[in-house]
Amino acid sequence: MDSITANNGIIHFNKTGYPAINQHIKQHNFSKIFILVDSNTHECCLPYFLSNLEHANNIEVIEIEAGEIHKTIDTCVGVWNSLSELDGDRKSLLINIGGGVVTDLGGFVASTFKRGIAYINIPTSLLAMVDASVGGKTGVDLGTLKNQIGVISTPDMVLIDTKFLDTLPPEQMRSGLAEMLKHGLISNETYWNKFTNFSELTLKDLDALIYESVLIKKAVVDADPFENGLRKTLNFGHTLGHAIESYFLSNTHKTDLLHGEAIAIGMVLALYISEKLVGFPQQKTQSIKTLLRKYYGKVEFEDSDYKPILELLKYDKKNSHGNINFVLLEDIGKTKIDCLVEESLIIEAFQFYLE
Fold first, then answer.
1. Which of 12, 146, 218, 238 is catalytic?
2. Does the record's keyword annotation contain Zinc (predicted)?
3. S-S: 326 plus which of 151, 245, 312, 339, CB 3.0-4.6 Å?
4. Does the pLDDT of residue 321 top 70, yes or no?
């Protein structure tokens, strides 16, 4: 697969990426190379990556705890301190090897340490490959509120190597699939239809779908790098999905949801709202709900859950002037941004989801 130029960086795929990284390191003569991993990727991914690196001397490995709960400013402080103690300077390179938590947090750390050092992202989860790999969004959560602190900053390079997917459990694969399904819904029906029999796809098929998903997101980001309009469409399903994810993270009586699991719920809710407000076809709402239920099952909600979830909507990053702005669909591939939705209709959508 051909490499993709995105923003000011470049995305390489599979084996073609390692010669590019080696050449990049050789050309830039970095004073020091740091590798950020979490406790999972340190064990499962780092040895394979290092085996493909020609310049493995003068490397320091920094490990953080795995999981969304550790995507915090406190974790950043720990990494900043490690970089300082290990003599990091403005000519250092940070290589982030992990899922979205590592690449988001590592990108933010690199963008702010010494007012900015070079970094490379190596996404190891399906979610990070199709989402965090493009667009330059970095940052951390504020408590349980998703991605409230961060900057837009482009890595020098991204390497998407699907060999890393061999290390992922099925639930993490499903989590990443949700973002690919979203890309289909906001872009075109042809891409969406490729997922109707996902279980029958081969690894070669998956490689091609990941590549196409990256191209879809790249086209949106190139047209609107700072999310003034079109880029908001990438948040389809995320307004309620992020609120649900945050609510389940903060509620000890609930089982935490992975990002993609929460977004799958958010997409069903957004489709029902789209049907009622902007005329999304009812038959498609039902068929998409059926497909998402097949992949993700059903999460139970109580009446008492709705108010705190609705309260969390006010922290959504698309909001402005006190309005909660939704992304809706008039049809597959036909989006409408900055839509206002009554709370009663949102609760109706939850009831539709539970049916």
1. 238
2. yes
3. 339
4. no
SS3 of 72, please?
coil
In order of 11, 17, 91, 302, 319, the CA distances from 2 in angstroms are: 9, 10, 29, 48, 37
pLDDT of residue 7: 72
Question: Residue 78 CB: number of other CB atoms within 10 A?
Answer: 17
Identify whether 318 is a catalytic site residue. Answer: no
| pLDDT value of position 323 | 79
For residue 163, the model assigns a pLDDT of 95
Q: Which domains does the chain have, with CATH numbers?
A: 4-168 (3.40.50.1970), 172-354 (1.20.1090.10)
pLDDT of 354 strictly over 90: yes
Q: Is 227 a catalytic residue?
A: yes
CB count, 10 Å around CB of 340? Answer: 9
- Per-residue pLDDT of 103-148, as tens digits, reads 999 999 999 999 999 999 999 999 999 998 899 999 999 998 999 9
146 among known catalytic residues: no
Query: How many Å apart are CA 207 and CA 166, to the nearest integer?
Result: 13
Q: Is 238 noted as a catalytic residue in this protein? A: yes
| Cβ atoms 150, 112 nearer than 8 A | no
Instruction: Yes or no: say if 137 and 180 are a contact pair by the CB < 8 Å rule.
Output: no
Element (H, E) at 181: helix 170-187
Contact 258, 172 (CB under 8 A): yes
* DSSP element (H, E) containing 20: helix 17-28
pLDDT value for 200: 77
- Which residue matches tokens 């591939």? 333
Lowest mean pLDDT among 51-55, 197-201, 281-285: 197-201
Structure tokens at 207: 């490689």
Yes or no: say if 5 and 154 are a contact pair by the CB < 8 Å rule.
no
Q: Which candidate in 231, 232, 284, 289 is catalytic?
A: 231
Each as own residue / partner, the long-range contacts of residues 339-342 (CB below 8 Å, 24 or more positions apart, any chain) are: 339/277, 339/278, 341/273, 341/277
pLDDT-above-70 percentage for the chain: 98
